[in-house]
Amino acid sequence: MRSYYLYPVIPVLALVLMPFLPFVNTTQLWFGLPRMLVWGGFSCVLLTISLFAADRVMSRDPEEDQP
């Protein structure tokens, strides 16, 4: 398994486990917004960054150039 497949694992797990995390699934607010909205938005931003990093690593991977 290549290492660039592991980059988006943490943000995806954060999104999937969001409703089950007790500190996120409450009625309290972060920054004036519901915690689940802030957590989901932050996870989506992290997912975008990790997919960009994985794309950069994939484009520089010399193993893919070989048949």
The whole-angstrom Rg is: 16 Å
**What is the straight-line distance between the termini?**
17 Å
Structural class: mainly alpha
Low-confidence stretches: none
Mean pLDDT: 84
Q: Order of strands across the widest beta sheet?
A: 1-2
The helix count comes to 2
How many extended strands? Answer: 2
Helix content: 40-55%
N-to-C SSE series? HEEH
What fraction of the residues are assigned to beta strands by DSSP? 5-15%
Q: How would the global form be characterised? A: elongated
Largest sheet: 2 strands, antiparallel
Outline the structure in words.
This protein has 67 residues and is mainly α. It has two helices and two strands; from the N terminus they run αββα. The chain has helices at residues 9-16, 35-60, and strands spanning 29-30, 33-34. Strands 1-2 form a two-stranded antiparallel ribbon. A hairpin with a 2-residue loop joins strand 1 and strand 2. Helix 1 runs antiparallel to helix 2. The radius of gyration is 16 Å and the shape is elongated.
Mind sketching the topology for me?
Elements: H1 9-16, E1 29-30, E2 33-34, H2 35-60
Antiparallel strand pairs: 1-2
Compose a concise summary of this entry.
Helix content is 51%, strand content 6%. Strands 1-2 form a two-stranded antiparallel sheet.
Pick out its properties:
67 residues, mainly alpha, two-stranded antiparallel sheet, 2 helices, 2 strands
